[in-house]
Amino acid sequence: MKKPLISLHLMQSLPPASIEIGTPVYDLSNGLIAQLDATDQALLLRRAKKVVLNVGDVLSSSDASTSHIYFPLSGAIALFVGKQGKATPVGLAVGLVGAEGAAGLQAALGFGAGNLKMLVQSAGQAYVVDAAAAQRLVNRRRTILLQFARYLWTVFDNMAVLASRPYTQDIKIRLAHWLLLSAQRCAPAPLMLTHAQIAHMLGVRRASISIAAREMKLKRYISYSRGHIALLNVPALQALAKIVV
């Protein structure tokens, strides 16, 4: 059996839940937070605030003076490598974080953003925690440190795979993979992406995405209209993306 090109089982988002500690009621829709025990959840979320993620927001970059960690409850955040263009960054997305995990988590271990920008691909909500507060917390709580370190290793492994795809696969394969990954990260919400957004994430021309998407639409792999994308034949997309499940 071929090795998966990306771990589709990467800490799937858990069903929405909540935990009440005294007066506050915390949303546990984030899979990484849900894996912590109740004490660690409360310690982390007392330091968090809930924010809205808007499409196109730049949450962090290498030149930021302060850093934060985002635990999405919905929507998706792209980990983007590139340079600032006239209006938007130009480059390539090497990761996508949804309600299964966290973006900027390396800050809890004392590391900066490096060459990564965190860009909101799909709108939603997230808990945000100041990096300094998170770093103090993981220094006190080994159980939190262990969960964060395990998640980060999986993220970095998948980033290496995504970074290699432009050199080994054509646009149709990369588009199929990105649609599957985006749908997974945003589930159960519907997938909202324009051809321009996808082209931006994959670092290709919009026309190339439109041609590949039209071919998939004619084969009834997907349907799309006004930014709404539906995956009609997931097994066919998985075969095209060369993903083993």
Folded structure, characterized:
The chain has two domains: 18-165, Jelly Rolls; 170-241, Arc Repressor Mutant, subunit A. Helices cover 38% and strands 25% of the residues. It contains eight helices and twelve strands. The chain has helices at 31-34, 38-45, 131-140, 142-168, 171-186, 195-202, 206-218, 234-241, and strands spanning 18-20, 25-27, 48-53, 58-60, 68-72, 76-84, 89-97, 116-122, 124-130, 191-192, 222-225, 228-231. Strands 4-8-6-7 form a four-stranded antiparallel β-sheet. A three-stranded antiparallel β-sheet has the order 3-9-5. Strands 10-12-11 form a three-stranded antiparallel β-sheet. α3 (131-140) crosses α4. It is globular, with a radius of gyration of 18 Å.
- Name the CATH superfamily classification of the largest domain: Jelly Rolls
Poorly predicted segments: 1-17
Oligomer: single chain
Distance between the termini: 10 Å
Fraction of residues in helix: 25-40%
Principal-axes shape call: globular
Count up the domains: 2
Topology, number of strands: 12
Q: What's the CATH topology label of the largest domain?
A: Jelly Rolls
**Mean pLDDT over the residues:** 86
Number of H/I helices:
8
Q: Structural class, please?
A: alpha+beta
Radius of gyration: 18 Å
Please tell me the CATH architecture of the largest domain by its name: Sandwich
Q: Would you list the SSEs in sequence order as H and E?
A: EEHHEEEEEEEHHHEHHEEH
Biggest sheet, strands in spatial order?
Answer: 4-8-6-7
The largest sheet is: 4 strands, antiparallel
Q: Give the CATH class of the largest domain.
A: Mainly Beta
Strand proportion: 25-35%
